[in-house]
């Protein structure tokens, strides 16, 4: 799933590429991708693209006050064309969910692999009309998200720290991959309870969060959309690297699998050398 750094990279790319352009048309190739009906998608036609912004994991194209907001979900992506295909995107069995064309002939498709369709797009007059945007917690990249604010937000939660970091209502933009990376950098177990963390732990966690995200945003900066996925994979130390060597201590990277996702961690760095049981109600093995 694209997370804060990749979405920031997409926003930067689109900001540069769409400067001075207007929307020519929006074509729906999936009857379920558009979650709104007023304004209609045709309302975007002819409107200039004034700005491209990020809200958590959402991308927001501000077109003269009418906004196309989309969330790429788990398997979605943006495919850019310097010259958009001549054929109209139509409903079918392919991966294309919608196509946007611009005044210079360029355009992009929003695509989604697999059968589970979660990619969502909205045409609204205010991004806050998108339920997911309205519910977002603070953005960890803003200057006012200080260590004290971070502590207040985290201390107000219950449960395991991995879930807290992934909860968009708590902190916007961090998902499964970067929560693994942050916890590894902070040397904390993904299953550590928030109630068990002391101030020193929160210091380490905050510093790790800022370092991991800043580094990943820098890696994504200036890259075209087609290269952002590879940049993300290349920067991962533990996420997606099950069975490989931890770059910090040399131990093997381990995995805990759930029904629809998995997490990766280093037992030596994060759990005192004790592997975690591979089930949802995991505790440290005795």
List the helices and strands and how they pair.
Blueprint: H1 4-17, E1 23-28, E2 51-55, E3 58-63, E4 66-71, E5 76-81, E6 96-102, E7 107-112, E8 120-124, H2 131-134, H3 147-155, H4 161-166, H5 176-186, H6 199-220, H7 228-235, E9 253-257, E10 262-266, H8 267-270
Antiparallel strand pairs: 1-6, 2-3, 3-4, 4-8, 5-7, 6-7, 9-10
Notes on the protein architecture:
- The protein is elongated, with a radius of gyration of 20 Å.
- Helices cover 27% and strands 20% of the residues.
- A four-stranded antiparallel beta sheet has the order 1-6-7-5, with no helix packed on it. It has a four-stranded antiparallel beta sheet with strand order 2-3-4-8, with helices on one face.
- The protein has helices at 4-17, 131-134, 147-155, 161-166, 176-186, 199-220, 228-235, 267-270; strands at 23-28, 51-55, 58-63, 66-71, 76-81, 96-102, 107-112, 120-124, 253-257, 262-266.
- The model is unreliable at 280-286 (pLDDT under 50).
- The protein contains eight helices and ten strands.
- The protein has 286 residues and is α+β, with helices and mostly antiparallel strands.
Helix content: 25-40%
The value of Rg in angstroms is 20 Å
Q: Characterize the main sheet.
A: 4 strands, antiparallel
| Helical run tally | 8
Shape: elongated
What percent of residues are in strands? 15-25%
Structural class: alpha+beta
Distance between the termini: 34 Å
State the oligomer: single chain
The strand line-up of the biggest sheet is 1-6-7-5
Uncertain runs are 280-286
Report mean pLDDT, rounded to a whole number: 94
Order of helices and strands: HEEEEEEEEHHHHHHEEH
Total beta strand runs: 10
């Amino acid at each position: 799933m694209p997370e804060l750094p990749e979405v920031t990279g997409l926003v930067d790319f689109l900001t540069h590429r769409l400067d001075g352009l207007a929307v020519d048309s929006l074509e729906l190739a999936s009857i379920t991708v558009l979650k709104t009906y007023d304004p209609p998608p045709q309302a975007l036609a002819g409107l200039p693209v004034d700005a491209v912004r990020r809200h958590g994991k959402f991308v927001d194209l501000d077109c003269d006050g009418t906004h196309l907001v989309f969330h790429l979900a788990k398997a979605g992506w943006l495919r850019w064309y310097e010259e958009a295909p001549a054929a109209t995107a139509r409903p079918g069995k392919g991966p294309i969910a919608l196509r946007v064309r611009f005044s210079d002939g360029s355009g992009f498709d929003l695509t989604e692999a697999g059968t589970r369709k979660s990619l969502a797009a909205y045409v609204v007059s205010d991004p806050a009309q998108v339920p997911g945007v309205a519910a977002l917690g603070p953005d960890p990249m803003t200057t006012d998200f200080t260590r004290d604010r971070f502590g207040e937000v985290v201390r107000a939660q219950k449960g395991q720290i991995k879930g807290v970091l992934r909860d968009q209502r708590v902190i916007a933009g961090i998902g499964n991959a970067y929560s693994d990376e942050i916890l590894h950098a902070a040397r904390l177990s993904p299953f550590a309870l928030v109630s068990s963390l002391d101030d020193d732990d929160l210091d380490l966690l905050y510093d790790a969060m800022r370092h991991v995200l800043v580094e990943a945003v820098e890696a994504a900066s200036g890259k075209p959309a087609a290269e952002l996925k590879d940049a993300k994979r290349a920067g991962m130390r533990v996420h997606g690297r099950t069975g490989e060597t931890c770059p910090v201590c040399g131990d093997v990277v381990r995995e805990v699998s759930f029904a629809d996702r998995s997490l990766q961690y280093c037992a030596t760095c994060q759990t005192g050398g004790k592997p975690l049981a591979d089930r949802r109600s995991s505790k440290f093995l005795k």
